[in-house]
Amino acid sequence: MFELGKVFRKEFTRRDFLKYSSSLAVLMGLSELYVPRIAHALESVVSRKTPVIWLHGAECTGCTVSFANSHYPSVAELVLDTLSVKYHETLMAASGHVAEKALDDAIREFNGKYVMIVEGAIPTKDGGIYCKIGGKPFVDVVQKVAKGAAYHVALGTCASYGGIPASGPNPTGAKGLKDVIGGTVVNIPGCPAHPDWLVGTIVNILLFGKVPDLDSKGRPTIFYGKVIHENCPRRGGYEQGRFIRNFGSEFPDIEGCLGAKGCRGPVTSADCPHRLWNSGTNFCIAAGAPCAGCVEPEFPQTPLYEAVPEVAKTIRAQENDDKQAAIGTFGASLGGAVVGAAAAAGGMYLAKEKSRQQASKAEEV
């Protein structure tokens, strides 16, 4: 058998344990009053580790890489010490028939008790022949494992909604987990998904014995409850209508909005501005790249760097205002020029008329 917790294991003092429990409370958006309950929930499952079966379909394994590379706070390390990952094709040492036997044994031994995590889309066309695991269509493996799972989790946008493998024309008929098995599925989209989103979901299951509250797209509201635009560090640029038109350029006195370069922050729901990536270092927009909306069912969108309708409307209105202002300025300048020309012409006429009168008087004399 394969114990993923051993890969990440470290010794924890009671103080460390409570510290990490507090971190988990913050991670899940809970009050500090929940810290004792979180600690108790984690302690209670140490002796009866929750079994996990983690499957891989049509994907790049980026979500596993993201999760395995989580560092500080090392909540993943703590939670993995309470889990028993019975099957994970990327991280397990076994392969071939030995690995497939481990999967069959886990399904039989922990029937109705394990957490099923699917990473990657599920090809369904032509009987699912375009993705096979152990010689079997992946769609069949998913359906078999799903029947005995207590909870179903789709990790990453590919597993949640089909993602890149399901983008047009989708020749393999790739689908998300819920579209294949139905029922309650916790979608944790992202390309890749943030490790905290999976950790928080698992802890919620351990703590409350149920999946967290989900939005209309099957995502935990504690992580996907607000649009990125609400807390965007470049929102000031948007409010002032100051849009970056070329990558690499910036305004001298404000961080310009990336809406003109296709940023989907106004229509994307995730806590990236608060969560940050790479151990709390940064996230796309703060790094100068537009949000690609990777947590939404529509991802990936093409063309990638074209303004979304909500932003394009604002940009067009601004451009129209600029044009009207320019026309007004030009009109005022033209009017001034006309008046000036008329005044000059009038002055020349008066000067000529005065000269003519003076010449007439001279002749009379």
What summary fits the major beta sheet? 5 strands, parallel
Mean pLDDT: 83
**Proportion of helical residues:** 40-55%
CATH superfamily of the largest domain: NADH:ubiquinone oxidoreductase-like, 20kDa subunit
Low-confidence stretches: 1-10
Count of runs of 4 or more consecutive helical residues: 14
The CATH architecture of the largest domain comes to 3-Layer(aba) Sandwich
SSE sequence, one letter per element: HHHEHHEHEEEEHEHEHEHHHHH
Over all CA atoms, what is the radius of gyration? 32 Å
| CATH class designation of the largest domain | Alpha Beta
Helix/sheet category: alpha/beta
Q: How many domains comprise the coordinates?
A: 2
Q: Which topology of the largest domain does CATH recognise?
A: Rossmann fold
Going across the major beta sheet, what is the strand order?
2-1-3-7-9
Portion in beta strands? 5-15%
**Total number of beta strands:** 9
Shape descriptor reads: globular
Q: How widely separated are the two ends?
A: 131 Å
